[in-house]
Design goal:
55 residues, single chain, flat
Length: 55
C-alpha cells in the first residue's frame, strides 16, 4: 500500500509543469519524496503507517 501511495504521488507531481527531479525513498525510516518546485528543492516526509489513517 505504501508503494501505491508513492506511485500515485509521483504521477500527480509529474503532471505539474513546475515540478521536476522527483525521487523517493520508501525504505527510509521516514519515507521521503524529494523534488524540485520551480527550481527550489523540496523534501516531503510521509507517515510510515499510512494505513492507520485510511478509515
Amino acid at each position: 500500500m505504501v508503494e501505491d501511495i508513492f506511485v500515485d504521488l509521483h504521477e500527480m507531481l509529474g503532471m505539474r509543469p513546475k515540478i521536476s527531479d522527483i525521487h523517493w525513498s520508501k525504505s527510509a525510516k521516514v519515507p521521503l519524496t524529494r523534488f524540485k518546485f520551480d527550481g527550489g528543492s523540496v523534501d516531503l516526509p510521509s507517515a510510515r503507517d499510512l494505513h492507520k489513517f485510511n478509515t
